[in-house]
Write a structure and sequence with these properties.
Layout: H1 3-28, H2 34-38, H3 43-65, E1 72-76, E2 81-85, H4 86-98, E3 103-112, E4 119-128, H5 134-153, E5 156-167
Parallel strand pairs: 4-5
Antiparallel strand pairs: 1-2, 3-4
Helix pairs in contact: 1-3, 4-5
Length: about 180
């Protein structure tokens, strides 16, 4: 989130917090708003809505002030914590995948696994050369990426999914007969 967006959200939260506190006080009878007193059956509804808006504004205000947590996998060693970002794991996965013969283009996505917070799942979108059997290529790619990420980063890989999005036929030079 950009600095401007944060400032805008802080300003908005403060304004809504002040207004909702005034409405909540009026609904509870501590302050006077004529339209609330003219309809006493709405008084408690206005107080509850104002209180909810006030709590929501405080929640937004505190969430803006808190520094965003970088997503990554934490490892505890005897010397302290190590955090490896998901971007780093994606980079390792891409480098490992580029070493597999038959891959022309690829993108990698790393996400936390639902099984364990310390393990990840890797998704690969690849374009293949069209000469290597796709099943064999995919299995070799899965083994290679899993092994490299686990060895280099020390992070457990639960799953490596492969989506073959395209094949590229190798360009062969035309034979010219005169």
């Amino acid at each position: 989130m950009s600095l401007f967006d944060r400032l805008l959200l802080v300003f908005h939260s403060l304004v809504v917090a002040v207004l909702s506190a005034m409405v909540a006080l009026a609904g509870a009878g501590a302050a006077s708003l004529e339209w609330v007193w003219e309809a006493p059956h709405l008084r408690w509804a206005v107080a509850v809505i104002g209180l909810l808006l006030f709590l929501l504004s405080l929640r937004l205000l505190f969430s803006v002030m808190r520094r965003p947590k970088d997503e990554g996998v934490d490892r505890l060693t005897e010397f302290g914590y190590i955090r490896i970002s998901l971007d780093t794991l994606e980079s390792i996965a891409q480098r490992a995948a580029r070493g597999v013969k038959g891959i022309r283009d690829l993108t990698a996505r790393v996400r936390f696994s639902s099984d364990s917070p310390s393990s990840v799942g890797i998704g690969l979108k690849i374009t293949v050369d069209g000469e290597t059997p796709i099943q064999l290529l995919s299995e070799e790619l899965q083994r290679t990426v899993k092994k490299q990420v686990e060895e280099i980063a020390g992070v457990e890989v639960n799953q490596v999914s492969v989506l073959v999005k395209d094949t590229v036929q190798p360009e062969r030079s035309r034979i010219r007969v005169d």
